[in-house]
Design a protein that fits this description.
alpha+beta
């Protein structure tokens, strides 16, 4: 079972750096909690066996993990998007693995990539299986 800390958004926001990218996540030196949306069959298998798998799980399917629960819920339309995103699981992964993923990730858009040319960015995309998509931070209480 994963135990999570809860911090008031306004208090947390005050601790962020004034510039740069911030990853909102529950983590420690050894692990980080990420969230992933699944169909009901795969989610039920994962909960019952405490590992991913089952008849509908596929390593060939593109998977989006997010280190922020509220953002994952928003992206899967509060579990209403479709049956393939009907359940969200909290998954604790090794921090070293997450850091490795971040190190091999390529920005999902040229403008965010930092690449010198569009061709260099396209080549980096072809060479990596990991995409990184930065999203602006939104106050969860904001109405627009």
């Amino acid at each position: 079972m994963i135990t999570l800390d809860v911090t008031d958004y306004r208090s947390l926001r005050e601790s962020w750096p004034s510039s740069g990218q911030v990853i909102l996540a529950q983590y420690d030196d050894d692990s980080i909690v990420v969230y992933q949306a699944f169909n009901a069959v795969t989610a039920e298998h994962a909960v019952a066996h405490q590992r991913l798998g089952g008849p509908r799980y596929s390593l060939e399917r593109m998977s989006w993990i997010k280190p922020n629960f509220m953002w994952m819920m928003y992206r899967c339309d509060w579990l209403q998007a479709d049956d393939e995103q009907a359940r969200v699981l909290a998954i604790r992964i090794r921090r070293a693995f997450f850091d490795e993923l971040m190190g091999t990730a390529v920005a999902s858009s040229f403008g965010a990539s930092g690449a010198e040319t569009h061709d260099a960015w396209k080549a980096a995309l072809r060479a990596s299986n990991v995409r990184l998509q930065w999203t602006r931070i939104m106050d969860p209480r904001a109405t627009s």
